[in-house]
Specification:
Elements (H helix, E strand, L loop, with lengths): L9 H13 L6 E5 L7 E5 L13 E7 L13 H9 L3 E5 L11 H16 L5 E11 L1 H11 L1 H5 L10 E5 L10 H7 L3 H6 L13 E6 L8 H12 L4 E6 L19 H11 L9
Parallel strand pairs: 3-4, 3-5, 5-6, 6-7, 7-8
Antiparallel strand pairs: 1-2, 2-4
């Protein structure tokens, strides 16, 4: 297991604040309730063509789960990610989920699984293709989405299996970490089984969804060793995994979706290739 720092860097906070200000995407947003809780809602962004009309489907669907150390964050702060995904021709779904301390592990993972199931049932209304459904998360959101993709119990409680996912994309995520802070212990500590279940590396199998992991080499919020460890575990069992390492700190991977970065972002290009690739594509080694 690797250590995990939790405080967001200043540059990441500035990025999140500025990206919405400069965003001028015009993809229409629809808010949908997937449960009765105040945070059990998601936003859908549908891509438009050059004529200003919704692109005809079926289109790939990317469900993006925000980070925030499991205790903060909101889909509204990531409007630029929804617009950025829509600009690629993807239907984007951005759910909220319960936050600490009101919602503890594993309840917030169940929230995301419920959002996935609900969106899958309705995404055809917005031109989405349920056979090309991708799950993507940043930071704490990457840990949550990895568990939904790898631990069959979460989607199982929705009457589904991870086989519904065409792929999982993890951005700067904690996948194999030590409970070395007050927040982490409050969020995940308890019985040995509970602590085991918090770690995505404990649920890798050969047949997990095709995976792309992107990480900033200079990340000081989530140790890069988390990605190294998950890649190693996936390759050990023969799973299909790609990795991408780029210069930069914690915000560099999700920052690829900001309007000013979309034109020359290696992260965005690799995500686009990953989503558009045939499902039987071989992993890069």
């Amino acid at each position: 297991m690797t250590a995990l720092a939790l405080s967001l860097s200043g540059c990441t906070g500035i990025l999140l604040g500025a990206a919405n200000v400069i965003e001028n995407g015009d993809a229409p947003r629809t808010e949908v309730a997937y449960g009765t809780g105040a945070r059990q809602r998601y936003d859908v962004y549908r891509p438009l063509g050059v004529d200003g009309l919704p692109l005809p489907g079926p289109l790939p669907v990317v469900i993006f789960v925000h980070g925030g150390s499991w205790e903060n964050g909101d889909k509204k702060s990531y409007r630029w990610v929804g617009q950025g995904l829509a600009k690629q021709g993807f239907v984007a779904v951005l759910p909220n989920y319960g936050l600490m301390p009101a919602t503890r592990f594993p309840a917030f993972v169940d929230d995301v699984a419920a959002a996935v199931a609900h969106a899958r049932a309705r995404v055809g209304e917005w031109g989405g293709d349920t056979t090309r459904l991708f799950l993507m998360g940043h930071s704490a959101g990457a840990q949550i989405t990895a568990l939904v993709a790898y631990d069959e119990r979460y989607l199982g409680r929705q009457g589904l299996t991870p086989a519904i996912l065409a792929g999982f994309i993890g951005l700067s995520g904690p996948y194999d970490f030590v409970l070395d802070s007050k927040l982490l212990r409050a969020t995940f500590a308890g019985a040995a089984e509970r602590e085991h279940d918090a770690q995505p590396v404990n649920f890798v199998r050969r047949d997990v969804p095709r995976t792309l992991l992107a990480m900033g080499r200079d990340d000081r919020t989530v140790r890069p060793a988390n990605t190294t460890s998950l890649v190693a575990h996936l390759r050990e069992v023969g799973a299909n995994v790609d990795e991408l390492w780029v210069p930069g700190d914690h915000g560099v991977t999700v920052g690829a979706f900001a309007r000013t970065n979309r034109g020359d972002s290696e992260v965005l290009e690799r995500i686009r290739e990953f989503v558009l690739a045939p499902r039987d594509r071989k992993a890069q080694r």
